[in-house]
């Protein structure tokens, strides 16, 4: 009975507080919600039309941004090389994947800055100022990105997709070759380059693993995992030669 009366008392108190403070809650000022309109058909002036186009382009870029960063920039080579480095060192969780991804993103921004500046100067700014049309902006913006990818794409990989696309090779030049042909060729060329750099990274750490394993075998310590002994030596070697500096320097030089 006591528990029943206690429950009823608490319920009455809560109901009284709602009745007392209910008016204050409803009387609170409402926050105005802005009216967002991205409909192009309702644009009355050229300025409104341009603003709506800007918003649509921004939303489209945000949707495709991960794919653009990963496949059409230097991010692909950098993240693959850093992944090979982590596996070669044998450290499972160090450095974390988020750190390697962040380093790859900032290196990508640094390397791609001239290309992005060219796209902004030749395409985005003139288009937003209504100096060029949309088709001209797309062509002007794709040219720096096309040049960046073509410089790092092998002729063999490019020829593979040119032949597979069955486009007219008599009228195709490096100035007007479609991006849908250049992009896959660039991707496989970058993967080849990244795997080559990863193989070279593996060699010194593989030598340390072989030496440690041979010493343990000769001492009869076959039950002791060689990784436990070789890992400190690999980290020591990497620190002594200033490995992060050499890796980043090699990546930057490879894109020049």
Radius of gyration: 30 Å
Based on CA inertia axes, which overall geometry fits? elongated
User: How many E-type strands?
Assistant: 0
Q: Which regions contain 5 or more consecutive residues with pLDDT less than 50?
A: 1-5, 17-29
- Specify the helix fraction band: over 70%
Quick check: average pLDDT? 77
Structural class of the helices, strands and pairings?
mainly alpha
Give the N-to-C terminal Cα separation: 84 Å
Structure description:
By secondary structure, the protein is mainly alpha-helical. The protein has helices at 2-26, 46-71, 75-89, 97-128, 134-151, 155-165, 179-218, 226-240, 243-254. The longest helix has 40 residues, at 179-218.
Can you summarize this structure?
It is built from nine helices and no strands. The protein is mainly α and 256 residues long.
């Amino acid at each position: 009975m006591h528990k029943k009366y206690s429950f009823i008392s608490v319920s009455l108190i809560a109901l009284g507080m709602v009745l007392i403070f209910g008016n204050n809650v409803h009387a609170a000022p409402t926050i105005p919600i802005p009216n967002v309109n991205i409909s192009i058909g309702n644009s009355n002036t050229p300025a409104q039309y341009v603003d709506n186009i800007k918003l649509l382009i921004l939303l489209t870029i945000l949707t495709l941004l991960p794919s653009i960063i990963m496949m059409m920039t230097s991010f692909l080579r950098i993240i693959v090389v850093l992944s090979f480095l982590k596996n070669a060192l044998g450290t499972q969780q160090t450095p974390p994947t988020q750190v390697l991804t962040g380093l790859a993103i900032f290196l990508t921004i640094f390397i791609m800055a001239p290309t992005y500046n060219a796209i902004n100067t030749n395409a985005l700014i003139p288009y937003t100022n209504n100096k060029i049309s949309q088709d001209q902006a797309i062509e002007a913006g794709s040219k720096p990105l096309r040049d960046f990818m073509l410089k790092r794409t092998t002729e063999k990989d490019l020829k593979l997709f040119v032949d597979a696309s069955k486009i007219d090779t008599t009228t195709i030049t490096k100035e007007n070759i479609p991006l849908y042909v250049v992009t896959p060729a660039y991707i496989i060329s970058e993967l080849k380059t990244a795997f080559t750099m990863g193989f070279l990274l593996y060699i010194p750490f593989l030598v340390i693993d072989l030496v440690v394993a041979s010493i343990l075998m000769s001492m009869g310590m076959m039950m002791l995992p060689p990784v436990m002994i070789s890992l400190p030596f690999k980290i020591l070697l990497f620190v002594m030669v200033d490995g992060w500096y050499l890796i980043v320097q090699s990546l930057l030089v490879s894109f020049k």
